[in-house]
Adenylate/guanylate cyclase (Streptomyces sp. R17), 255 residues
Amino acid sequence: MTSHAQHSQLLFADIKEFSSRSDHAQLRARNDLYAEMRSAFTDERWRSCRHEDRGDGVLVVIPSDPDLPLETLFTDVLPRLEAGLGGRRRSDPLLRLRIAVHAGPVHRDRHGFAGHAVNHVFRLCDGAPLRQALDEATSDTAVLVSEAVHDTVVRAGLPGVEATTFHPVTFQVKETRARAYLHVPGDPACALRIAREAAPEPHGGRDDARHGGVSVSAGHSVHMDGAIVTAGDAQVTMPAAQRTRWWRGPRGESR
């Protein structure tokens, strides 16, 4: 592994419904993905990035470069990608992408890229809000950006980045629970609707959920074992967001 991590921009693009395709269709989808990504970045910018193939997607690692500032992803790259995918609809098989964007320290060894920032961008892409957005959007891309990216690019009000099209959501994948911002380039109403349906928890969500999440009133002694309350006249009240999370159980991990 490298002696020190390099701060990089991370973009992960994942093909929707990849595993349901035949082997031949998967190979074609992969070829089309790389063609569309090169076109969106432009050949020169694509060559300046590093890439790691993920089978049904590609991780793009963009080293710090004044010629490709992070806001360029939102003002140039992602709009070109959405336009390119939309232009395919007349004749080519449908190619729709979930896209996650993050930035942070990235390590590289002979096996590929590693580090918490890499883990986080993968989990952003696997989060329920992004999956729902691409299921419901009329566009061919849906984007989930980390809070770090939102703070440095979107909230900063950099030219060409419209902050009102990024909407806060929370997501949970494995042990990661975090806030992120949903953006659907070709269907901004979709992002707003999903964010309103699943309003994010107060900042610091995991700790907030752990403290004071359940209130109990009872006529006599109460015994609690996890989420089970036993008593004579016991009444349990819990917020709807927690009730949904506890009663439904964890989401599956399959793509």
Observations:
- Residues 23-41 form the longest helix (19 residues).
- Residues 25 and 93 are 9 Å apart (CA to CA).
